[in-house]
Amino acid sequence: MGTIKHAFRTLFKTPFVTAIAIISLALGIGANAAIFSLFEQMLLRPLPVRDPQQLVSISAPGPKPGSQSCNQAGDCDVVLSYPMFRDLEAKQTVFAGIAAHRLFGANLAYKKQTLNGDGVLVSGSYFPMLGIQPAAGRLFGPAEDQTIGAHFVTVLSHDYWQTQLGGEPGVVGQTMIVNGQQMTILGVLPEGFEGTTLGSRPHVYVPITMRALMEPGFRGFENRRSYWAYVFARLKPGVTIDQARVGLNVLYKPIINDVEAPLQTGMSDSTLSRFKARQLLLEDGQRGQSSVHEEAGTPLKLLFGITGIVLLIACANIANLLLARGANRAMEMAVRLSLGARRWQIVRQLLVESVLLAILGGAFSLIVAKWTLGLMASIMPPEAAATIKTELRPAVVAFAALLSIVTGLIFGMFPALHSTRDDLIATMRANTGALSGARAASRFRMSLVTVQIALSMALLVSAGLFVKSLINVTRVDLGIKTENVVTFGVSPELNGYTYARAQQLFTRIEEELAAVPGVTGVTAAMVPVIAGSNWGTDVRVEGWTSGPDIDSNSRYNEVGPTFFKTLGVSLISGREFTTADVSGAPKVAVVNEAFAKKFNLGRDAVGKRIADGGDDDPLDVMIVGLVRDSKYSDVKDEVPPVFFRPYKQDTTVGRMTFYARTALQPEPLVRTATTVIAKLDPDLPLENLRTLTQQVSQNIFLDRMISTLTAGFAALATLLAAVGLYGVLAYTVAQRTREIGVRMALGADGGRVRMMVLRQVGLMTLIGGAVGIAAALALGRAAASLLYGLGGNDPFVVVTAALALTLVAFIAGYIPARRASKVNPMQALRYE
Fold first, then answer.
1. For residues 170 and 175, what is the distance between their CA atoms, to the nearest angstrom?
2. How many CA atoms lie less than 13 Å away from 325 in the CB half-sphere?
3. Of 403, 378, 473, the residue nearest 712 (C-alpha)
4. Are 628 and 569 in contact (CB under 8 A)?
């Protein structure tokens, strides 16, 4: 305790210097703690279930002829058909349990409260296998999983129960409407469990056998060529994941070869061979099943590396500070050693001081971490921000504490050892006024500053690459005009609308929006524009030869009249859809340039015929228009081949996204849209109400977040490096005051003295900059997948970063240089 009290007194003898050190450490440790919080949530944290380490995810890569439907629980390599899941569930012997699940869009209504959100279809084994206990009522079991379409029950998430229903104690046994179906509430899930798919926060859980009622039009329960179920399992005690994989594939292989292979048609021999050779893969499933794990991995690791560099720069400043403080206390150390104090005792005292300094910085770092998490949440779309926690969990606090202690020990070690070196007593006895070992300490300080410059250069180049990448993304020609357009979606089919009634509603919405003052155009689309959605199908095109293993797939969309005019998509030839293109009228389509190019239609696409069904369907859809390419799903993706159909010719469309262009500011129209829908159906919730500009911005939020954070961290690192450079040079000038006085007494003028100091700055900048550029190029190659429109070694970015760092370094060095040139020779000769 006495050691800690002495350390406090020592630190606060120089409160300004100590405050600067604490702030530097708080910034470095806080940035790392914030990124670790996301890292832990997205890549490390296991599901809050019983023994999560026993869970495994099951995937089925390989050819999947037929229909594939996947979502954020994983890509289409992961999904299995429903009959295959039931086969494995009935016959497997290597698991304690196996379960299936599937996200779906849910329109909910309970006592006149409506909400659109996520729901999860789950097998009866889902909750028992996870070992989940209800907060109220009970959860599904095998009894709710026996008959297709017969189990009208649901389970609520704890968050939905609390935030939307006010934690109503009598909710169990009550009836709520889920996608137009009356469902009895069986129970409420425990707090903290939010499903097994990171990135989704489901409100309700429904038996998987109810999918056809939750998603009208679904017909995939008996179809082995319809892949849509995500499957995971719990290992039996004593069974390894490799043993389970072998045992499961012994069961899987005959099903593939004897049952499913004969069902495949139009498949080449090579593809059929690969189909028969398919095997199930088992992977660690303790974090659930989610595409977020893979998508977030590279950006988070990159940001973790960048914040680590910021911390290293901050710690180098602390090491230099401790060295300078140790030099000023050299006589104190020598006296203590001469009086019999052991070296390890003094080293321990100095390490306690450095660790205490780091712990104080770590305490304030929690504020920085909270601010940083808030900044990241503000950049994210609301849907993404809602899935992350900005509070500092115990794991994050523990990480910050551990990082503080390790930082204090590592960067306090050399100054502590140097301050207690063996020649201090001889120095005191000689009373020379100059401490031996100062040259070694000076070299160490200069080396630390050079390393800081190198690290700052690496971060500046990296930040420059991401900023330029973001600029490239924002300059992408979308092929549409996003200004003053409001968009929102509705899903009347989820409220039990028939398709005919849904069509009538869509027409009413278009009419009501068109009547709003200032609105100049209204249209609709089944697939929302630049919203990450992809719908595709194989097509046959007049004059195009198709066959086994020939790619004839195209994206498609079903849109309303004046779709292209309203969104500003240029028409090259032909016409776009009109109100006459309805069911019963001749089938028509509009294609984009990429479609015309892929299927060799050129500029003569208009008048050709296509079929978007099976091989036996007639070529009965006539192309009536050719439009310029416009972005379909993502801003950064190449424009795919797309054909458009009038949604009014499809009697099965049950959901739609609307677009209204206004000549006025769009914000009032956002409010009006809510009123319009409430007037037509107060029980129908709006989905994703926003401006189209906001939609596009949210599509590239990851680019904006990485660019903002890397630029901020690079600026912080450069500032810390400049502070370190200034501190070292100022200390060096103070130590060399006598030498500088002698030089000036012998005739050296102020300009020559300034150049002496600035040459030192130039040498450190040159060496550190060169090393930093090499490191930056390596970082650029590693991050190339996140860049858009440039490589990881852009010359303009490198040169700009080098010039910026050189300018900052010389500004930081000029003040000590100028101070050195003002030294009075007579005073300097009396120095010390």
1. 11
2. 25
3. 378
4. yes
Provide the 3-class DSSP secondary structure of residue 553.
strand
Residue 300 corresponds to which tokens in the numbers above? 């988070």
Res. 832: pLDDT tops 50: no
Residue 117 β-bridge partners: 106
User: Has residue 76 got a pLDDT over 90?
Assistant: no
Within 13 A of 111's CA, how many CA atoms are on the CB side? 7
Residues 6+ apart with CB under 8 A from 294: none
pLDDT tens digits for range 28-58: 899 999 999 988 888 888 999 999 999 999 9
CA atoms within 13 A on the CB side of 681: 21
> Position of tokens 């990135």?
199
Summarised one tens digit per residue, pLDDT across range 610-667 is: 987 656 678 889 999 999 999 998 888 899 999 999 999 987 778 899 999 999 899 8
Residue written as token pair 């425990």: 190
CA dihedral 286, 290, 291, 292 (to 10 degrees): -80
Structure-token match 């006459």, residue found:
580
- Phi/psi for 155 (5° steps) reads -125, 140
The distance in angstroms from the start CA to the end CA of the chain is 36
Whether the predicted model's global pTM rises above the 0.90 cut: no
- Report the 3 state secondary structure along 683-698: CCCCEEEEEHHHHHHH
Scan for tokens 């939905």, then name that residue: 160
Cβ neighbours around 303 below 10 Å, total: 22
The Cα 544–Cα 563 span in angstroms is 28
